[in-house]
């Protein structure tokens, strides 16, 4: 497949929209957590992803729900309870995440070495 650098960025790189959806700053940890740990309440997610703020978690969950990757279930109890779980569409990303985890395990050390070599040469 030849890439045309002059083409529209989404035409030149057909995975760009996927990268925008799946690999934004907090999306990956949220999807990973929901996939690994199953259905969770907001506070459980916030506890597991300790560095995310409540505002950002709310924004990302809403976007993931809009994109169809997360399902939000409201339970009209007293007090009300809301749970989040990964959707079938979100779950379909599991093989991609598995490949990326494998790549990370095999190659992040090499990336660190390349960075050290680059920084040492400067």
From TrEMBL:
<dbReference type="InterPro" id="IPR036388">
    <property type="entry name" value="WH-like_DNA-bd_sf"/>
</dbReference>
<dbReference type="GO" id="GO:0003677">
    <property type="term" value="F:DNA binding"/>
</dbReference>
<feature type="domain" description="HTH hxlR-type">
    <location>
        <begin position="13"/>
        <end position="112"/>
    </location>
</feature>
<keyword id="KW-0804">Transcription</keyword>
<dbReference type="InterPro" id="IPR002577">
    <property type="entry name" value="HTH_HxlR"/>
</dbReference>
<protein>
    <submittedName>
        <fullName>Helix-turn-helix transcriptional regulator</fullName>
    </submittedName>
</protein>
<dbReference type="Pfam" id="PF01638">
    <property type="entry name" value="HxlR"/>
</dbReference>
<dbReference type="InterPro" id="IPR036390">
    <property type="entry name" value="WH_DNA-bd_sf"/>
</dbReference>
<keyword id="KW-0805">Transcription regulation</keyword>
<keyword id="KW-0238">DNA-binding</keyword>
